[in-house]
Amino acid sequence: MSEPVEELEIQLLLDALYHHYHYDFRHYARASIKRRLLQAQKQLGFDSISALQSAVLHDETMLPNLLNYLTVQVSEMFRDPAYYRALREKVIPHLHTYPSLKIWVAGCSHGEELYSLAILFREEGLAEKTIFYATDINPGALKAAKAGVYSLDRVRLFTENYQQSGGRYSLSEYYTADYGRAVFDQSLRARTVFSDHSLVTDAAFGEMHLISCRNVLIYFDRELQDRVVGLFAESLARRGFLGIGSKESLRFSALADRFSEFVREERIYRRKSR
């Protein structure tokens, strides 16, 4: 198949997903979305992107399968430990000054980042005055995040990250081992609101004190990155904090002037007061 025809098929599928299901991937980075669609086509057993489109449009049960390819679900607890150490040592002291806190984990995937923050906030004495908002566009990911169950073979890495991030105890205090699984304590998510939310199409959340959205912006094109950065600026309280991924930056965003660098090396920013 010629590349122009393949590109047209991809665009038509993205348009169909938006108009029929209201999932908007049209401004995701094209190279990344093309790679994932071709992988989905192959592994789901279709001869072409057009055949995949037809199946998704005429069989709603195909949609969750496709979403699993189009949404990135790769994460780990306390990923990039220095980021969590910076939160613990430099951001948490400021958060202690508020009578109540709202924290948004945007693009929460299977919940690894949510549980990391919940543990950190518990250890720093902030859990009882904090409400977490964990959002994703993938219903399957949200279901997994609510469950808080991970394979035990992943926990060794989680534990190493936790220790390097400045963890005060043992990670094993927060989960029970059960038939090859680590089941994290329900109390860690007792003050969490799980919600379907699209950074592409949905409105801002109000008055957040910290937004953590790591390794998501890299999958968007520049136009969508600017849209999302504006959404975060609108969602943050004055002088609220934004954490993004280690390979991401606000430097080239059209809205960079709404933030100041707070911990440059860990990509933690602070919304300006004006």
Detailed description of the structure:
It is a single chain. With 274 residues, the chain is of the alpha/beta class. 41% of the residues lie in helices and 19% in strands. The chain has 9 helices and 10 strands. The chain has helices at residues 3-21, 30-43, 49-58, 62-70, 81-95, 112-123, 139-147, 155-164, 222-235, and strands at residues 101-106, 130-136, 149-151, 175-178, 181-184, 192-196, 208-213, 236-244, 259-263, 268-271. A 7-stranded mixed sheet has the order 6-2-1-7-8-10-9. A 3-stranded antiparallel sheet has the order 3-5-4. The chain is globular, with a radius of gyration of 19 Å. The mean pLDDT is 94.
Brief rundown of the structure:
With 274 residues, the chain is α/β, with parallel strands linked by helices.
What characteristics describe this protein?
274 residues; alpha/beta; seven-stranded mixed sheet; three-stranded antiparallel sheet; 10 strands; 19% strand; globular
Helix and strand arrangement:
Elements: H1 3-21, H2 30-43, H3 49-58, H4 62-70, H5 81-95, E1 101-106, H6 112-123, E2 130-136, H7 139-147, E3 149-151, H8 155-164, E4 175-178, E5 181-184, E6 192-196, E7 208-213, H9 222-235, E8 236-244, E9 259-263, E10 268-271
Parallel strand pairs: 1-2, 1-7, 2-6, 7-8
Antiparallel strand pairs: 3-5, 4-5, 8-10, 9-10
